Amino acid sequence: MTLGDGTLAVGAGRPAPEKGAPPLPGPVFAAYYHLPGEPTGPYTYGRDENPTWTLLEAAIGELEGGAEVTSFSSGMAAVAAVVLSQTRAGDVVVLPDDSYMQTRSLRERLESYGAQVRTGPTAGDAQLRLLDGARLVWLETPSNPNLDTCDIHRIADAAHAQGALVAVDNTLATPLGQRPLDLGADFSVASDTKAMTGHGDLLLGHVATRDPKLAADVRLWRKTVGAIPGPMEAWLAHRSLATLPLRLDRQAENALALARALRHRPEVADLRYPGLPDDPAHDTAARQMRHFGGVVSFTLPDEPFAERFLSSLRLVTQATSFGSVHSSAERRARWGGDTVAPGFIRFSTGIEDTEDLLADIHQALTKAGQAGEVGQ
């Protein structure tokens, strides 16, 4: 029987019911395990395995459409595990030049190891022109923060024909919004810090794959560098998965409402949201995504206007993250790592009542504009 997303998320990774046992066993805190005789068994040392990770990884594997999952202490730990475990001196790695800035920062590390890095934009499936001789192709769709998309299936087919592996950063979509493995990717990677756990209080990441050899490579990398999640974080993440479909639905609903509302604001330019039918990313997104996510990007006239807007918001936190139940926004150019205008805003919608959220945004835009006129 095929289960719906809500049913799947509620029960994913949970053990069979047992009289007197909790539905989700509590976190296991152990640096070592009793291990007489030969060192065999599922749990031998705390850096290798943990029963709490096992349940979380099983749960995420179900959400990924059936996969072997390795959990990590952060999204970047998961990203680095794939990129660095699969690359050797002389290999060619293809990276998006508009992906998450810390992913792009791996270029210097890769080149110091003797790898060659090629980059191209996400839009227009530009990676297709960079595949010759590649070992690994990294995709991020929708991209962060510009929200461009690329055709995972098309690029994966072409990359595999060239003998390359394909990894997809699926952080913005989550496995319930998009399943890269079903579209031909070898790895599905995510920062579970964002929408997967959804409360802005955990740092986690994961790598999913259906290839046992690739899974073993990633797991060995985690063991070697020690990028392991804490048992409490893993347990809290598993608990949070039950509400993932509800959160995604509400966030996407709010994001679409926000995008539609911003169309009518004269202060707003370069509005992007894949859920808008006329967005440049929409056609590709509609073919491979089931949710368009909770992130909207747009550009305000300049840096001072953007800062006045952000400081005038009452319900929205200024934070450099997304996917939380609490709406957040930031002027992305303040970090200096993205090619965006000074007034570029990345806005992450939470689960607040839509009317309240829109009212707050409208008043903040109006107040920012009026304050600017007074200052002239």
TrEMBL record:
Q: Which Gene3D superfamilies match?
A: Aspartate Aminotransferase, domain 1, Type I PLP-dependent aspartate aminotransferase-like (Major domain)
Which terms are listed as keywords in the entry?
Answer: Lyase, Pyridoxal phosphate
Q: Which residues carry this modification: N6-(pyridoxal phosphate)lysine?
A: K194
Cite a single GO MF annotation: pyridoxal phosphate binding
Query: Could you state one GO biological process linked to this protein?
Result: cysteine biosynthetic process via cystathionine
EC number(s) from the headed UniProt entry: 4.4.1.1
Which GO CC terms are listed, alphabetically? cytoplasm
Q: Which cofactor does it need?
A: pyridoxal 5'-phosphate
Q: Which Pfam families match?
A: Cys_Met_Meta_PP
Chain residue ranges for the region called Disordered? 1-23
What InterPro entries does its record include? Cys/Met-Metab_PyrdxlP-dep_enz, PyrdxlP-dep_Trfase, PyrdxlP-dep_Trfase_major, PyrdxlP-dep_Trfase_small
UniProt similarity note: Belongs to the trans-sulfuration enzymes family.
Report the protein name in the record. Answer: Cystathionine gamma-lyase
